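A.,

Following up on our hallway conversation. Structure tokens first:
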């Protein structure tokens, strides 16, 4: 007896789009077949008539229960129970956040901290990137291999400290020599390197220059975290990657120059990948000028309208690989507290809207194909981060993470459409198509606006990146 059948919808699979039925037994998909194939008793039938049926979304870049300091307060972004619930409402079934190795701690301690935060506290499945910062000591480099072998297959670094030197906390920037040594470890152990890539000299110079010119209002943020900085930094990182053979995944690409640098390296056969954010695709630096326009800010920064359109082109037609959020959920009071380029709070609560906005803006309004939609919201992240084919695909043997999108929903998003924190930059945004049903490992957890997930049912996922992904640009 089958536990679940989904029938009547347009199902997006690796071999195309069709009106197939999906059979689920336990937590797995056991068959994808022609209509009418399954005639035996079944526990439940989900009618997907008129819906688009896609794999559960994968959020590759989220800062959950992440500590930060603002106006002397030690705070944290929203915890797993809140973010994972909102994610499932929005069709995202897997979240990846960060185990942060700070000065004075090692990788094992970072993993233990994240394990303690997440265990028993997530509705959705989850995993952790490692995050290394500052001067990477030999003992930390030596722990990378062990961590990768234990299923932590991805490591993130920064090439900038992001905020001005006066900002509280230890520096994040990894310098080129340490980056080279880390890249050798990444290449040797079949891992994936994630890079927040900006030129620190240029960023810090602009903070200083704007302060001298008394132009420190938040709407000048794009002058600090600018196109030239992205271009110069991406190319430096790619040069080191070419020397070492390391794969690179650039997080939150924000400028057309970043897309171009990625494309040139991929044309050489280098395993280089690029992520952007759906807020970068939908807003530009002019939005900073609005009242409380700092609400749009995510580091590095919004750029020009030309950049915004280039990002959409990269998502719809190729050039970029994944749509992410850089999830960093705070309250409205905290989000608008900073008024200058030095104290604005980055990030936003985007995990719930990522799938719907990408469908509405990409598929409905720009003609993106359904297979491409699946690639940028799920399949590519699964491949690059080492989850494929368990996640990111509707196929026999894969987890039954399945989302139904209603393409006929046309509305303006309102406050009660969201299920986390007290604001959203997407309130008032017009959409065409939205997720309505989410299934996590065979269990219907969201349906018709009702949530039935179980806290603690989310599973931790150990990952291993396929060698093809780390040796050449496969997606």
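Then the amino acids I'd put at each of the 475 positions:
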């Amino acid at each position: 007896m089958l536990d679940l059948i989904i029938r009547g919808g347009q199902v997006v699979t690796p071999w195309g789009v069709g009106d197939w039925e999906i059979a689920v037994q336990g937590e797995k998909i056991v068959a994808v077949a022609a209509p009418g194939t399954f005639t035996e008793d079944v526990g439940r039938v989900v009618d997907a008539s008129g819906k688009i049926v896609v794999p559960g979304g994968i959020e590759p870049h989220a800062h959950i229960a992440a500590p930060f300091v603002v106006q002397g307060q030690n705070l944290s972004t929203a915890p797993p129970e809140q973010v994972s619930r909102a994610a499932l409402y929005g069709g995202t079934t897997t979240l990846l956040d960060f185990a942060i190795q700070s000065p004075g701690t090692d990788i094992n301690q970072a993993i233990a901290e994240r394990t303690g935060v997440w265990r028993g506290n997530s509705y959705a499945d989850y995993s952790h990137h490692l995050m290394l910062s500052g001067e990477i000591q030999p003992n930390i480099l030596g722990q990378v291999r062990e961590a990768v072998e234990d299923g932590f297959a991805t490591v993130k670094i920064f090439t900038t400290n992001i905020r001005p030197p006066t900002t509280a906390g230890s520096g994040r920037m990894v310098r080129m020599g340490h980056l080279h040594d880390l890249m050798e470890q990444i290449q040797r152990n079949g891992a994936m390197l994630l890079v927040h890539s900006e030129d620190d000299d240029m960023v810090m110079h602009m903070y200083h220059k704007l302060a001298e010119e008394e132009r420190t209002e938040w709407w000048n943020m794009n002058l600090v975290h600018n196109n030239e900085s992205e271009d110069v930094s991406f190319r430096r990182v790619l040069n080191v990657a070419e020397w070492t053979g390391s794969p690179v995944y650039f997080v939150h690409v924000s400028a057309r120059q970043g897309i171009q640098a990625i494309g040139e390296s991929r044309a050489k056969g280098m395993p280089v990948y690029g992520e952007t954010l759906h807020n970068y695709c939908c807003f530009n630096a002019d939005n900073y000028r609005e009242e409380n326009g700092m609400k749009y800010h995510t580091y590095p920064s919004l750029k020009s309208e030309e950049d915004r359109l280039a990002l959409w082109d990269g998502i719809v037609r190729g050039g970029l690989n994944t749509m992410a959020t850089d999830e960093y959920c705070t309250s409205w009071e905290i989000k608008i507290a900073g008024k200058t380029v030095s104290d604005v709070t980055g990030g936003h609560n985007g995990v719930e809207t990522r799938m719907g906005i990408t469908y509405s803006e990409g598929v409905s309004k720009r003609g993106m194909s359904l297979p491409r939609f699946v690639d940028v919201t799920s399949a590519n992240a699964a491949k690059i981060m080492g989850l494929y084919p368990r996640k990111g695909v509707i196929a026999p043997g894969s987890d039954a993470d399945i989302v139904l999108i209603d393409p006929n929903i046309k509305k303006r998003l309102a406050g009660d459409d969201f299920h986390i924190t007290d604001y959203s930059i997407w309130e008032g945004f017009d959409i065409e198509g939205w997720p309505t049903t989410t299934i996590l490992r065979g269990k219907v957890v969201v349906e018709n606006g009702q949530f039935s997930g179980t806290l603690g049912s989310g599973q931790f996922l150990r990952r291993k990146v396929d060698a093809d992904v780390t040796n050449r640009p496969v997606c």
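The chain has a mean pLDDT of 96. Curious whether your intuition agrees with the design.

B.
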